[in-house]
Write a structure and sequence with these properties.
The complex is a heterodimer.
Chain A lengths: L1 E10 L2 E11 L3 E6 L5 H8 L7 E6 L2 E2 L1 H7 E4 L12 H11 L4 H14 L15 H13 L5 E5 L7 H12 L4 E5 L11 E6 L2 E6 L1 H11 L3
Parallel strand pairs in A: 3-8, 3-9, 6-7, 7-8
Antiparallel strand pairs in A: 1-2, 1-4, 4-5, 9-10
Chain B lengths: L1 H4 L6 H4 L2 H17 L3 H17 L4 H8 L3 H14 L2 H23 L3 H11 L9 H31 L6 H25 L4
Helix pairs in contact in B: 3-7, 3-8, 4-7, 5-7, 6-7, 8-9, 9-10
Classes of the chains: A alpha/beta, B mainly alpha.
Chain lengths: 222, 197
Amino acid sequence: MIRFREVSVKKDGQAILTEIDLSLSERRIGIIGRNGSGKSTFARLFNGLETPTNGSVTLNGQGGSKALRRHVGFVFQNPDNQIVYPIVHEDLEFGLKNLGLGKDEMRARIDTVLRRFQLEHLRDRLTHQLSGGEKQMIALAGVLVMRPRLIVLDEPTTLLDLWNKRRFMAAIHELEQQIVLVSHDLDLLDGFDRVLHIDGGQVVADGLPDPVIAGYTAGAQC
Amino acid sequence: MLSDLYVFGDSLLHRARPLIKILALVVFCTGLFLFDHWAVIAIAGLMVAAGFAVAGLRPHHGVAALRPAFWILVAIFAVQVWLADLALATFIISRFALLILAASLVTLTTTAGEFVDGIEAGLKHAPGWVPKTRIALAISLTLRFIPLVRSVLIEVRQAQVARGLERNITALLVPVVVRTLKHADETAQAIQARSFD
Protein backbone atom coordinates (compact mmCIF):
# COMPACT_ATOMS: atom_id res chain seq x y z
CA MET A 1 0.00 0.00 0.00
CA ILE A 2 1.26 3.45 -0.87
CA ARG A 3 0.47 6.24 1.57
CA PHE A 4 0.52 9.99 0.91
CA ARG A 5 0.47 11.90 4.19
CA GLU A 6 -0.53 15.55 3.74
CA VAL A 7 1.77 15.93 0.75
CA SER A 8 2.34 19.35 -0.78
CA VAL A 9 4.73 20.28 -3.57
CA LYS A 10 5.82 23.83 -4.30
CA LYS A 11 8.04 24.99 -7.17
CA ASP A 12 9.40 28.52 -7.40
CA GLY A 13 6.96 29.52 -4.65
CA GLN A 14 3.99 28.20 -6.60
CA ALA A 15 1.83 25.39 -5.20
CA ILE A 16 1.77 22.43 -7.63
CA LEU A 17 0.08 19.97 -5.24
CA THR A 18 -1.72 20.85 -2.01
CA GLU A 19 -2.23 18.59 1.01
CA ILE A 20 -2.80 15.27 -0.69
CA ASP A 21 -3.78 12.70 1.90
CA LEU A 22 -4.44 9.25 0.48
CA SER A 23 -3.91 5.52 0.93
CA LEU A 24 -3.80 3.52 -2.28
CA SER A 25 -4.07 -0.24 -2.07
CA GLU A 26 -6.17 -1.08 -5.16
CA ARG A 27 -4.49 -3.08 -7.94
CA ARG A 28 -5.49 -0.76 -10.80
CA ILE A 29 -5.58 2.98 -10.15
CA GLY A 30 -6.15 5.66 -12.79
CA ILE A 31 -5.22 9.33 -12.60
CA ILE A 32 -6.98 11.85 -14.81
CA GLY A 33 -6.93 15.62 -15.08
CA ARG A 34 -6.34 18.56 -17.37
CA ASN A 35 -2.92 19.59 -18.69
CA GLY A 36 -1.04 21.38 -15.93
CA SER A 37 -3.32 20.05 -13.18
CA GLY A 38 -0.38 18.51 -11.28
CA LYS A 39 -1.01 14.86 -12.17
CA SER A 40 2.49 14.25 -13.61
CA THR A 41 4.07 15.76 -10.50
CA PHE A 42 1.78 13.55 -8.43
CA ALA A 43 2.85 10.49 -10.46
CA ARG A 44 6.53 11.35 -9.96
CA LEU A 45 6.05 11.37 -6.18
CA PHE A 46 5.33 7.64 -6.27
CA ASN A 47 8.92 6.68 -6.99
CA GLY A 48 10.76 9.60 -5.51
CA LEU A 49 11.46 11.52 -8.72
CA GLU A 50 9.72 14.41 -6.97
CA THR A 51 10.14 14.97 -3.26
CA PRO A 52 7.34 16.58 -1.25
CA THR A 53 7.88 20.07 0.10
CA ASN A 54 5.70 19.01 3.03
CA GLY A 55 4.38 15.62 4.11
CA SER A 56 5.63 12.14 3.23
CA VAL A 57 5.19 9.29 0.75
CA THR A 58 5.68 5.71 1.93
CA LEU A 59 5.33 2.29 0.34
CA ASN A 60 4.39 -0.39 2.86
CA GLY A 61 5.75 1.89 5.58
CA GLN A 62 9.08 2.53 3.80
CA GLY A 63 9.90 6.08 2.75
CA GLY A 64 12.78 7.92 1.10
CA SER A 65 13.64 8.28 -2.57
CA LYS A 66 15.99 5.28 -2.64
CA ALA A 67 13.46 2.82 -1.20
CA LEU A 68 10.69 4.15 -3.43
CA ARG A 69 12.84 3.85 -6.57
CA ARG A 70 13.82 0.32 -5.62
CA HIS A 71 10.20 -0.83 -5.44
CA VAL A 72 8.32 1.50 -7.78
CA GLY A 73 8.92 1.33 -11.52
CA PHE A 74 8.17 4.26 -13.79
CA VAL A 75 7.27 4.22 -17.50
CA PHE A 76 7.52 7.58 -19.26
CA GLN A 77 5.43 8.91 -22.12
CA ASN A 78 8.31 8.95 -24.58
CA PRO A 79 10.39 5.74 -24.56
CA ASP A 80 13.23 7.56 -26.35
CA ASN A 81 13.86 9.39 -23.09
CA GLN A 82 13.82 6.20 -21.07
CA ILE A 83 16.11 3.98 -23.12
CA VAL A 84 19.73 4.56 -22.13
CA TYR A 85 21.78 2.03 -24.11
CA PRO A 86 22.00 1.60 -27.89
CA ILE A 87 21.32 -2.18 -27.84
CA VAL A 88 18.15 -3.68 -26.34
CA HIS A 89 19.68 -6.31 -24.04
CA GLU A 90 22.25 -3.82 -22.75
CA ASP A 91 19.48 -1.36 -21.91
CA LEU A 92 17.58 -4.07 -20.03
CA GLU A 93 20.75 -4.80 -18.05
CA PHE A 94 21.10 -1.16 -16.98
CA GLY A 95 18.60 -1.21 -14.09
CA LEU A 96 19.75 -4.67 -13.01
CA LYS A 97 23.37 -3.51 -12.79
CA ASN A 98 22.16 -0.67 -10.59
CA LEU A 99 20.63 -3.29 -8.31
CA GLY A 100 24.00 -5.04 -8.18
CA LEU A 101 22.83 -8.34 -9.70
CA GLY A 102 25.21 -10.93 -11.17
CA LYS A 103 25.36 -11.81 -14.87
CA ASP A 104 23.42 -15.09 -14.57
CA GLU A 105 20.59 -13.49 -12.62
CA MET A 106 20.44 -10.61 -15.10
CA ARG A 107 20.26 -12.98 -18.05
CA ALA A 108 17.55 -15.08 -16.39
CA ARG A 109 15.38 -12.05 -15.61
CA ILE A 110 15.80 -10.58 -19.11
CA ASP A 111 15.02 -13.92 -20.77
CA THR A 112 11.86 -14.31 -18.66
CA VAL A 113 10.49 -10.86 -19.50
CA LEU A 114 11.37 -10.98 -23.21
CA ARG A 115 9.77 -14.43 -23.53
CA ARG A 116 6.64 -13.42 -21.63
CA PHE A 117 5.90 -10.57 -24.04
CA GLN A 118 7.24 -12.26 -27.20
CA LEU A 119 10.07 -9.75 -27.54
CA GLU A 120 12.99 -12.22 -27.86
CA HIS A 121 13.59 -11.18 -31.47
CA LEU A 122 14.43 -7.65 -30.30
CA ARG A 123 17.19 -8.72 -27.88
CA ASP A 124 20.14 -7.72 -30.12
CA ARG A 125 18.44 -4.90 -32.02
CA LEU A 126 19.65 -1.29 -31.98
CA THR A 127 17.18 0.65 -29.85
CA HIS A 128 16.98 3.67 -32.15
CA GLN A 129 15.89 1.42 -35.01
CA LEU A 130 12.84 0.03 -33.18
CA SER A 131 9.30 1.18 -33.95
CA GLY A 132 7.48 3.38 -31.41
CA GLY A 133 5.46 0.40 -30.15
CA GLU A 134 8.54 -1.78 -29.80
CA LYS A 135 10.40 0.98 -27.94
CA GLN A 136 7.56 1.37 -25.44
CA MET A 137 7.46 -2.40 -24.87
CA ILE A 138 11.24 -2.38 -24.27
CA ALA A 139 10.85 0.57 -21.88
CA LEU A 140 8.24 -1.47 -19.98
CA ALA A 141 10.50 -4.54 -20.07
CA GLY A 142 13.33 -2.42 -18.62
CA VAL A 143 11.10 -1.69 -15.65
CA LEU A 144 9.71 -5.22 -15.28
CA VAL A 145 13.13 -6.90 -15.10
CA MET A 146 13.68 -4.93 -11.88
CA ARG A 147 10.60 -6.65 -10.39
CA PRO A 148 8.96 -3.61 -8.83
CA ARG A 149 5.93 -3.94 -6.55
CA LEU A 150 4.18 -1.00 -8.15
CA ILE A 151 4.45 0.46 -11.66
CA VAL A 152 3.53 4.04 -12.51
CA LEU A 153 2.84 4.80 -16.17
CA ASP A 154 2.72 8.45 -17.24
CA GLU A 155 0.61 8.64 -20.42
CA PRO A 156 2.47 5.67 -21.92
CA THR A 157 0.24 5.23 -24.98
CA THR A 158 0.14 8.83 -26.23
CA LEU A 159 2.70 8.17 -28.99
CA LEU A 160 1.35 4.74 -29.98
CA ASP A 161 -0.98 3.74 -32.80
CA LEU A 162 -4.20 1.85 -32.06
CA TRP A 163 -2.65 -1.59 -32.56
CA ASN A 164 0.35 -0.90 -30.34
CA LYS A 165 -1.84 0.80 -27.74
CA ARG A 166 -3.97 -2.35 -27.47
CA ARG A 167 -0.90 -4.56 -27.30
CA PHE A 168 0.67 -2.38 -24.62
CA MET A 169 -2.49 -2.24 -22.52
CA ALA A 170 -2.99 -6.00 -22.84
CA ALA A 171 0.49 -6.41 -21.37
CA ILE A 172 -0.35 -3.98 -18.56
CA HIS A 173 -3.60 -5.77 -17.70
CA GLU A 174 -1.88 -9.12 -17.26
CA LEU A 175 0.75 -7.78 -14.83
CA GLU A 176 0.44 -8.90 -11.24
CA GLN A 177 1.91 -5.64 -9.86
CA GLN A 178 -0.11 -2.71 -8.57
CA ILE A 179 -0.55 -0.26 -11.48
CA VAL A 180 -0.99 3.51 -11.43
CA LEU A 181 -1.84 4.85 -14.88
CA VAL A 182 -1.92 8.55 -15.76
CA SER A 183 -3.91 8.95 -18.96
CA HIS A 184 -5.95 11.34 -21.05
CA ASP A 185 -7.37 8.32 -22.86
CA LEU A 186 -10.31 7.46 -20.61
CA ASP A 187 -11.01 4.16 -22.42
CA LEU A 188 -7.79 2.77 -20.95
CA LEU A 189 -9.27 2.98 -17.47
CA ASP A 190 -11.93 0.42 -18.31
CA GLY A 191 -11.89 -2.24 -15.59
CA PHE A 192 -9.81 -0.16 -13.18
CA ASP A 193 -10.59 -0.30 -9.47
CA ARG A 194 -10.21 3.36 -8.59
CA VAL A 195 -9.76 6.67 -10.39
CA LEU A 196 -8.45 9.96 -9.01
CA HIS A 197 -9.32 13.24 -10.69
CA ILE A 198 -6.70 15.91 -10.05
CA ASP A 199 -7.37 19.58 -10.68
CA GLY A 200 -5.50 22.64 -9.47
CA GLY A 201 -3.08 20.48 -7.50
CA GLN A 202 -5.81 18.75 -5.48
CA VAL A 203 -7.72 15.48 -5.68
CA VAL A 204 -11.18 16.77 -6.56
CA ALA A 205 -12.80 13.38 -7.11
CA ASP A 206 -11.84 9.90 -5.98
CA GLY A 207 -13.74 6.66 -6.38
CA LEU A 208 -14.98 4.09 -8.86
CA PRO A 209 -14.13 4.89 -12.48
CA ASP A 210 -17.65 5.53 -13.83
CA PRO A 211 -18.76 8.38 -11.53
CA VAL A 212 -15.30 10.02 -11.44
CA ILE A 213 -14.93 9.92 -15.25
CA ALA A 214 -18.54 11.13 -15.69
CA GLY A 215 -17.82 14.16 -13.47
CA TYR A 216 -14.59 14.86 -15.33
CA THR A 217 -16.13 14.69 -18.81
CA ALA A 218 -19.15 16.77 -17.69
CA GLY A 219 -16.73 19.51 -16.62
CA ALA A 220 -15.02 19.38 -20.02
CA GLN A 221 -18.17 20.24 -22.03
CA CYS A 222 -17.60 23.31 -24.25
CA MET B 1 29.38 6.09 -34.61
CA LEU B 2 29.33 3.06 -32.37
CA SER B 3 25.61 2.30 -32.26
CA ASP B 4 25.20 2.68 -36.03
CA LEU B 5 28.37 0.91 -37.11
CA TYR B 6 28.45 -2.14 -34.87
CA VAL B 7 28.43 -5.29 -36.97
CA PHE B 8 27.19 -8.39 -35.19
CA GLY B 9 29.64 -11.28 -35.23
CA ASP B 10 31.52 -13.84 -33.21
CA SER B 11 35.07 -13.35 -34.48
CA LEU B 12 38.22 -13.20 -32.39
CA LEU B 13 38.02 -9.41 -32.51
CA HIS B 14 34.37 -9.40 -31.46
CA ARG B 15 35.21 -11.60 -28.49
CA ALA B 16 38.38 -9.75 -27.47
CA ARG B 17 38.12 -7.68 -24.29
CA PRO B 18 37.27 -4.06 -25.09
CA LEU B 19 40.07 -2.76 -22.88
CA ILE B 20 42.62 -4.82 -24.85
CA LYS B 21 41.21 -3.46 -28.12
CA ILE B 22 41.36 0.13 -26.89
CA LEU B 23 44.93 -0.31 -25.61
CA ALA B 24 45.98 -1.99 -28.87
CA LEU B 25 44.48 0.94 -30.77
CA VAL B 26 46.45 3.42 -28.65
CA VAL B 27 49.71 1.49 -29.29
CA PHE B 28 48.93 1.20 -33.02
CA CYS B 29 48.20 4.93 -33.40
CA THR B 30 51.27 5.94 -31.39
CA GLY B 31 53.49 3.65 -33.48
CA LEU B 32 52.06 5.06 -36.68
CA PHE B 33 53.03 8.58 -35.62
CA LEU B 34 56.40 7.68 -34.12
CA PHE B 35 57.88 6.18 -37.28
CA ASP B 36 57.87 8.32 -40.44
CA HIS B 37 58.48 5.63 -42.99
CA TRP B 38 56.53 4.15 -45.88
CA ALA B 39 57.36 0.66 -44.63
CA VAL B 40 55.47 1.41 -41.41
CA ILE B 41 52.45 2.60 -43.44
CA ALA B 42 52.61 -0.61 -45.48
CA ILE B 43 52.83 -2.83 -42.39
CA ALA B 44 50.02 -0.89 -40.69
CA GLY B 45 47.91 -1.23 -43.83
CA LEU B 46 48.45 -5.00 -43.81
CA MET B 47 47.55 -5.15 -40.12
CA VAL B 48 44.30 -3.23 -40.67
CA ALA B 49 43.42 -5.40 -43.67
CA ALA B 50 44.12 -8.53 -41.62
CA GLY B 51 41.95 -7.13 -38.82
CA PHE B 52 39.06 -6.56 -41.23
CA ALA B 53 39.44 -10.09 -42.60
CA VAL B 54 39.55 -11.69 -39.13
CA ALA B 55 36.48 -9.72 -38.03
CA GLY B 56 34.60 -10.79 -41.19
CA LEU B 57 34.15 -7.19 -42.28
CA ARG B 58 33.66 -6.10 -45.89
CA PRO B 59 35.32 -3.24 -47.81
CA HIS B 60 32.07 -1.24 -47.67
CA HIS B 61 32.41 -1.08 -43.86
CA GLY B 62 35.79 0.60 -44.33
CA VAL B 63 34.36 2.97 -46.93
CA ALA B 64 31.50 3.87 -44.57
CA ALA B 65 34.01 4.62 -41.80
CA LEU B 66 36.08 6.89 -44.07
CA ARG B 67 33.19 8.68 -45.75
CA PRO B 68 32.47 11.25 -42.95
CA ALA B 69 36.16 12.28 -42.99
CA PHE B 70 36.46 12.35 -46.79
CA TRP B 71 36.41 16.13 -47.29
CA ILE B 72 38.74 16.71 -44.34
CA LEU B 73 41.22 14.26 -45.88
CA VAL B 74 40.87 16.02 -49.24
CA ALA B 75 41.56 19.39 -47.56
CA ILE B 76 44.62 18.05 -45.72
CA PHE B 77 45.88 16.50 -48.96
CA ALA B 78 45.46 19.75 -50.89
CA VAL B 79 47.19 21.84 -48.20
CA GLN B 80 50.12 19.39 -48.02
CA VAL B 81 50.54 19.33 -51.82
CA TRP B 82 50.62 23.13 -51.73
CA LEU B 83 52.97 23.41 -48.72
CA ALA B 84 55.20 20.39 -49.41
CA ASP B 85 54.87 17.84 -52.21
CA LEU B 86 52.66 15.06 -53.51
CA ALA B 87 54.64 12.30 -51.77
CA LEU B 88 54.30 13.85 -48.30
CA ALA B 89 50.60 14.65 -48.89
CA THR B 90 49.95 11.02 -49.86
CA PHE B 91 51.91 9.81 -46.84
CA ILE B 92 49.97 12.00 -44.40
CA ILE B 93 46.50 11.15 -45.64
CA SER B 94 47.42 7.44 -45.78
CA ARG B 95 48.35 7.70 -42.12
CA PHE B 96 45.09 9.46 -41.22
CA ALA B 97 43.03 6.98 -43.22
CA LEU B 98 44.74 4.08 -41.41
CA LEU B 99 44.02 5.69 -38.06
CA ILE B 100 40.34 6.00 -38.92
CA LEU B 101 40.16 2.43 -40.22
CA ALA B 102 41.94 1.05 -37.15
CA ALA B 103 39.56 2.96 -34.85
CA SER B 104 36.60 1.70 -36.87
CA LEU B 105 37.85 -1.87 -36.34
CA VAL B 106 37.25 -1.28 -32.62
CA THR B 107 33.85 0.38 -33.06
CA LEU B 108 32.66 -2.17 -35.64
CA THR B 109 33.37 -5.07 -33.30
CA THR B 110 32.45 -3.54 -29.91
CA THR B 111 28.95 -2.83 -28.62
CA ALA B 112 28.36 0.32 -26.63
CA GLY B 113 27.89 -1.73 -23.46
CA GLU B 114 31.18 -3.58 -23.96
CA PHE B 115 32.89 -0.28 -24.73
CA VAL B 116 31.55 1.24 -21.53
CA ASP B 117 32.60 -1.86 -19.57
CA GLY B 118 36.07 -1.47 -21.09
CA ILE B 119 36.27 2.15 -20.00
CA GLU B 120 35.12 1.16 -16.51
CA ALA B 121 37.73 -1.60 -16.37
CA GLY B 122 40.37 0.89 -17.51
CA LEU B 123 39.38 3.24 -14.71
CA LYS B 124 39.38 0.47 -12.10
CA HIS B 125 42.64 1.67 -10.55
CA ALA B 126 41.77 5.36 -10.81
CA PRO B 127 41.59 7.25 -7.49
CA GLY B 128 38.35 6.99 -5.51
CA TRP B 129 37.28 10.54 -6.36
CA VAL B 130 37.04 9.66 -10.08
CA PRO B 131 33.33 8.95 -10.79
CA LYS B 132 33.96 5.80 -12.84
CA THR B 133 30.36 4.65 -13.23
CA ARG B 134 29.21 8.15 -14.14
CA ILE B 135 31.93 8.52 -16.77
CA ALA B 136 30.94 5.17 -18.28
CA LEU B 137 27.25 6.14 -18.27
CA ALA B 138 28.04 9.53 -19.84
CA ILE B 139 29.83 7.78 -22.71
CA SER B 140 26.93 5.40 -23.20
CA LEU B 141 24.44 8.28 -23.21
CA THR B 142 26.52 10.16 -25.76
CA LEU B 143 26.35 7.17 -28.07
CA ARG B 144 22.62 6.78 -27.44
CA PHE B 145 21.92 10.47 -28.02
CA ILE B 146 23.62 10.74 -31.43
CA PRO B 147 20.83 9.02 -33.41
CA LEU B 148 18.25 10.76 -31.22
CA VAL B 149 19.61 14.24 -31.95
CA ARG B 150 19.96 13.33 -35.61
CA SER B 151 16.27 12.33 -35.78
CA VAL B 152 15.27 15.58 -34.00
CA LEU B 153 17.37 17.54 -36.50
CA ILE B 154 15.69 15.83 -39.47
CA GLU B 155 12.22 16.33 -37.94
CA VAL B 156 12.77 20.04 -37.28
CA ARG B 157 14.27 20.58 -40.75
CA GLN B 158 11.30 18.82 -42.39
CA ALA B 159 8.82 20.86 -40.33
CA GLN B 160 10.54 24.05 -41.46
CA VAL B 161 10.65 23.01 -45.10
CA ALA B 162 6.91 22.20 -44.88
CA ARG B 163 6.35 25.79 -43.73
CA GLY B 164 8.38 27.17 -46.63
CA LEU B 165 11.51 28.09 -44.66
CA GLU B 166 14.77 27.83 -46.59
CA ARG B 167 18.16 27.36 -44.94
CA ASN B 168 18.31 29.27 -41.66
CA ILE B 169 20.79 27.96 -39.14
CA THR B 170 19.34 29.86 -36.14
CA ALA B 171 15.80 28.70 -36.85
CA LEU B 172 17.14 25.15 -37.11
CA LEU B 173 19.42 25.10 -34.07
CA VAL B 174 17.15 26.77 -31.50
CA PRO B 175 14.36 24.14 -31.56
CA VAL B 176 16.90 21.31 -31.87
CA VAL B 177 18.81 22.52 -28.79
CA VAL B 178 15.58 23.10 -26.82
CA ARG B 179 14.23 19.65 -27.67
CA THR B 180 17.58 18.00 -26.95
CA LEU B 181 17.77 19.64 -23.53
CA LYS B 182 14.21 18.50 -22.79
CA HIS B 183 15.18 14.96 -23.85
CA ALA B 184 18.25 15.17 -21.59
CA ASP B 185 16.15 16.34 -18.66
CA GLU B 186 13.67 13.47 -18.97
CA THR B 187 16.42 10.95 -19.59
CA ALA B 188 18.11 12.07 -16.37
CA GLN B 189 14.81 11.42 -14.54
CA ALA B 190 14.45 8.04 -16.24
CA ILE B 191 17.95 7.07 -15.11
CA GLN B 192 17.10 8.03 -11.54
CA ALA B 193 13.87 6.07 -11.81
CA ARG B 194 15.91 2.97 -12.66
CA SER B 195 17.78 3.08 -9.34
CA PHE B 196 20.96 4.79 -10.59
CA ASP B 197 22.58 6.64 -7.68
